[in-house]
Design brief:
It contains 12 helices and 9 strands. The chain has about 325 residues and is an alpha/beta fold. The protein has a 5-stranded mixed β-sheet, with helices on both faces. It has a two-stranded antiparallel ribbon with strand order 1-2. The chain has a two-stranded antiparallel ribbon with strand order 8-9. A hairpin with a 5-residue loop joins strand 8 and strand 9. It is elongated. It starts with 6 loop residues before the first strand and ends with a strand.
């Protein structure tokens, strides 16, 4: 039976009820474990504050947890949630409310950029501390003490799975947002004047980035009602068949909606590659460099120099394309 996928709703993680049940099955939690947890409850509940101190003292040993300890309000909330957690661990009710409580704690850890490896170390330390106390409690019956600690460990693994899933998903979401921001920065569409856009392409262009170029340009054309685009590829050193195809599609897509596209900055190597790939360059507006591309676009748009303003600034008027 496949495990249901986790869902992210708003800014939080949500687990289907079926997934919660499966997680209990994964750790092997059974009726005997619930009975043993009930027996261990008085001990763990009575020493909960000591366990919380041990857990956070362990975390405080590492410089990577500085963000967690810098936020006084979040840290106090985390400590309180951990105390509540230790009490709830022994009650035997591991449904939606219990999981949501774990996720609240996980969010604090995630916001503090707590690393999974450090969390695992601290949680192992917590379980070991509880284990020592349980073995002392069952000193006259070590076998039962071992089984009771095993029941606590099962809930511990159940909890760890929830916390780690949240930390990993939030980390992946952060990486995705960072990658999106980088893509946005790597595919800027700049409005130089009314009706005129500049699309500078710098660095390596793969198929994914070429698609983003097309999407970003068409969106900018639509939002600014541009009529001319200067696509400058001075910074592109090499080009392959897939990328050439996408660039041609970008130009064609813009032309189909009535926009003039001027290509500038073709290096000899890129121009030769385009010809070898079968691109008919004579069908496109091509100029040697960016300045020539801007001047050509201004001419197409009807901009003309009518004089010089203060400090030598050139004043332009537009008569339309």
């Amino acid at each position: 039976m496949p495990v249901p996928e986790l869902g992210v709703v708003d800014d939080g993680l949500r687990f289907p009820e079926s997934d919660i049940q499966r997680r209990k099955e994964f750790v092997g939690l059974g009726p005997d474990d619930l009975s043993r947890l009930a027996m261990a409850s008085p001990l763990v509940t009575a020493r909960a504050s000591q366990y919380v101190v041990a857990f956070f003292n362990y975390l405080a040993r590492f410089e990577e947890t500085a963000t967690l300890f810098a936020g006084v309000k979040a840290l106090e909330e985390a400590r309180q949630l951990k105390r509540d957690h230790l009490a709830a661990m022994m009650r035997g009710d591991y449904g939606r409310r219990y999981v949501d409580q774990r996720l609240r704690l996980a969010k604090i850890y995630s916001d503090a950029k707590l690393e999974v490896r450090i969390f695992l170390g601290a949680y192992r330390h917590l379980m070991s501390t509880i284990g020592v106390d349980l073995m002392e409690r069952f000193a006259d019956n070590p076998s039962e003490g071992f089984k009771t600690f095993g029941a606590v460990e099962k809930i511990g693994f159940f909890d760890m799975g929830i916390i780690i899933d949240h930390l990993l998903i939030e980390r992946e979401r952060t990486i995705a947002l960072q990658q999106e921001a980088i893509r946005d920065l790597s595919t800027p569409v700049l409005q130089l004047r009314r009706g005129l856009l500049l699309l500078p392409i710098i660095g390596e262009v793969d198929t994914r980035r070429a698609q983003l170029l097309t999407d970003g340009l068409l969106l900018a054309i639509r939002s600014t009602r541009a009529r001319v685009v200067v696509m400058d590829i001075t910074g592109v050193r090499a080009i392959n068949a897939d990328v050439a195809h996408h660039l041609v599609q970008t130009v064609e897509a813009a032309r189909l909606i009535g926009v003039v596209v001027i290509l500038s900055g073709l290096s000899p190597a890129v121009a030769q590659a385009l010809v070898e790939l079968g691109v008919e360059l004579s069908a496109y507006e091509i100029v040697g460099d960016l300045q020539s591309g801007v001047e050509r676009s201004e001419h197409l748009l009807g901009y003309r120099v009518v004089g010089e303003g203060p400090r030598g600034a050139v004043v332009h008027l537009t008569a339309g394309i």
